[in-house]
Amino acid sequence: MTTIRDIARNAGVSTTTVSHVINNTRYVSDEVRDRVLESMKDLGYQPNDLARSLKLGKTNTLGLILPDHSNPFFAEVSRFIENHAFLLGYSVIICNTENDPDKELVYIKTLSQKKVDGIIFVAAGSDNRSIHYLQSIDLPIIIYDREIPDLMEKSNFSFLVTDNYLGGVMATEYLVSLGHRKIACITGPSNLTPGAQRANAFRDVLKKHDIPLDEAMILKGNFDYPSGYDCAQQLLALPEQPTAIFACNDMMAIAAMRAIRERGFQIPADISIIGFDGISLAAYQWPSLSTIRQPFKEISETILDLFMDITSSTPSRAGRVVLAPTLIQRESCRPL
Hints:
By secondary structure, the chain is of the alpha/beta class. It has 3 domains: about 5-45, lambda repressor-like DNA-binding domains (434 Repressor (Amino-terminal Domain)), CATH 1.10.260.40; about 60-165 and about 295-325, 3-Layer(aba) Sandwich (Rossmann fold); about 165-295, Rossmann fold, CATH 3.40.50. It has 12 helices and 12 strands. The chain has helices at about 5-10, 15-25, 30-45, 50-55, 70-85, 100-115, 130-135, 165-175, 195-210, 225-235, 250-260, 295-310, and strands at about 60-65, 90-95, 120, 140-145, 155-160, 185, 220, 245, 270-275, 290-295, 320-325, 325-330. The strands form 2 sheets. Strands 2-1-3-4-5-11 form a 6-stranded parallel sheet, with helices on both faces. Strands 7-6-8-9-10-12 form a 6-stranded mixed sheet, with helices on both faces. Helix 7 (about 130-135) links the parallel strand 3 (about 120) and strand 4 (about 140-145). Helix 5 (about 70-85) packs across helix 12, helix 8 (about 165-175) packs parallel to helix 9 and helix 10 (about 225-235) crosses helix 11. The chain starts with a helix and ends in an 8-residue tail after the last strand.
């Protein structure tokens, strides 16, 4: 097996110089570097990445823990994160917890044991065991899509969220501006920050415009297709159907659109509908789905910026970053 001694002898340099070329730990002239690299190529030498990682204390890998990779929103977020991390020289290990707190905790422990350089974490729910374990490890942690006040001041934690309340306001105000007053809302799980804030915004906008709040028109979904479909069926079975629906994510909105059509209603002639997230699939529905778009590219870039900041010699400690969503007007909404 070829060793760095063989490389050094063949290139006419010291083993220390070969080590500096491989690990990029000190300046080496271009002429010498090229000679070493050519020698490595000639002798078929492959550096031991694991041994080098242990020596340098860096693996150039990040862990990304997601609650549901089948959710198109998280699939798109992970794609942008992986692409941006690759440009920065990092590989990403993606872990899908399937909303299982036990599986989530196992993945956190596994990633920390594999010496990843940092963890990007989206919680499956409100189980505190994962948070307690994250507090016990000395790694940069970027928490996305959730806010945990107790960890805001910790130097190895940063938080990134989309302004879900603002997005909920934008969606509801848009429907109100179109003349709708009988507006229903399909919310997410109330224990998760995004769904709660979007639903709170819906209630506040109706109150602001003196629109009566009918609790029968506010149904709790689970951010998945089946719950969106079932909630829409319940809304359409009411004695007086809504003229517009705000679904708190695009998956539920898309499923609700199917339920609406199955009941013989037309979108948007009979019922307008708006979603939240801005997944690619929303643009290809018939009719195309109006939505509140989250900034996928900016999310991924900011997550990596926060990680790089924590690991820098002079961190700025942003701590918490909030990104603004945008309203995308398409064909699924019309003036009443």
